[in-house]
Amino acid sequence: MDKKTVLLLVLIVIVTVSFSALYEEQESSFPTQNEIFNTDVRSIMDTTVTISIYDSDGEHAGQSIDKAFERIGNVDGIMSTYKNESQASALNEQSKIEGASPDLIYVVERSLYYSEISNGAFDITIMPILDLWASKFSPGGTYQPPTQEEIDITLELVDYRMITIEGDNIYMEPGMKIALGGIAKGYAVDQAIEVLLSEGITSCFVDAGGDGRYIGTKPDGSQWTVGLQNPDKQGDFITVMQLEDMAVATSGNYERYFSDAAKVSHISDPRTGYSVNELISATVIAGNTMDADALATTVFVLGEEEGMQLIESLEGVECLIITSDKRIIRSEGFAEYETTIEQ
Prior knowledge:
By secondary structure, this protein is α+β, with helices and mostly antiparallel strands. It has helices spanning 58-79, 87-94, 102-117, 127-136, 148-155, 184-198, 255-258, 289-302, 304-313; strands spanning 11-17, 20-27, 36-44, 47-55, 96-97, 164-166, 169-171, 204-208, 211-215, 224-229, 237-243, 246-252, 279-286, 318-323, 328-330, 338-339. Helix 8 runs antiparallel to helix 9.
């Protein structure tokens, strides 16, 4: 579902994620100051990950990128619920895990924070609802939405407040399951960035299926350029952002831009058990990718009014939303990151 195209000389990556798209204008001129642009694209975490850095030492650049990808793989191995051997899968299977990785403990703790500030609009215990809907539209299913009774019964297993963390142990009520898709990618990107910084890289970015973090500036002093694609016109952009030491993520359902029949979003409201349709997309700029990732999902669930209220209450976070009737709304400080480029 995610696509990347790297063009030579003027390097632009096209990223399609959650029916929204981002591009990174990676290089607008030839490298200066003996810094060479190094980039690698790999499939990992069920998405396409791009790591790009400037480094004068090609061998060091390759080693640094390999280490960053290794860290992403490590995070995926812990948090993927599609891997039976992962700690997240063990937690779902047993409703508890003792001796959990610090990575998993931290991500679950941060998830509970996002749940608290959003009054449950973000909730990693939503997996039973996702499974219920998937069962209806899979081979052997009814291909009809779940009944209200089925949803109500399943919602009894969805409540972040029933997660308990004691030291390095995590406990849940029997039958509860977590889904970390709204936060794990962002955390993995941040961890890859930390690896690159520890290797002395000061100009780089990591993008995992549209969750991207951008460090420093390019050798010519220019910032990283990130565009939010206009779903009405290929090659056109809703907005173009310039980022330095910031992250951006988009959640949404761009299918609704083209068809009012696209009512079922892949993002569900943990409070109701139904997919959310008030917005087409939510794009969040934040200081780290985990915040941007989780908050983009949260705003998409909360909708226009509550979503923007939450963003305006948070320091250092901005947001742009596209409503279902195609209005574009920006948080108060979003324009500070916007620019124009020739297309």
